[in-house]
Amino acid sequence: MTLIQMQPRPANAHPVHRTVEDAMEAACPQVCDDMTVEVALAVMASARTEHLLVCDEDGLCTGLVTRAGLATVRDSAAYTDQVRLRDLPGERGPVASPMTTMAEAQHAMRYRRLDALPVVDAQGSALGVLAVAH
């Protein structure tokens, strides 16, 4: 597993018609939503990544969690070591289709202040992540 970064634009991709599929990283750590916060943080550390795709028992993407978000949960007064990813409050954020234009994805990421956006197929299975390169 590697750090997820945006790939350079292919020479034949016109910027106006470029899609998320052209820039997403397909190899991405995925975990099940029944994983505890502690285990998810350990997976992130060993994978050297700042986020994980979260999938349900059917393998469908339910969102994305970040190291910073999980650290905030772990440091809260209500935290126990039994908290699972599916138990985390709040929405998991938007997802993108591989055919979403880069302009649309960038707008959504800027508007929601996201560093990463899950990319899913029509059935909801995770294909990869579009991430801001740091």
TrEMBL record:
<keyword id="KW-0129">CBS domain</keyword>
<feature type="domain" description="CBS">
    <location>
        <begin position="20"/>
        <end position="70"/>
    </location>
</feature>
<dbReference type="Pfam" id="PF00571">
    <property type="entry name" value="CBS"/>
</dbReference>
<dbReference type="InterPro" id="IPR051257">
    <property type="entry name" value="Diverse_CBS-Domain"/>
</dbReference>
<dbReference type="InterPro" id="IPR000644">
    <property type="entry name" value="CBS_dom"/>
</dbReference>
<dbReference type="InterPro" id="IPR046342">
    <property type="entry name" value="CBS_dom_sf"/>
</dbReference>
<feature type="domain" description="CBS">
    <location>
        <begin position="94"/>
        <end position="130"/>
    </location>
</feature>
<protein>
    <submittedName>
        <fullName>CBS domain-containing protein</fullName>
    </submittedName>
</protein>
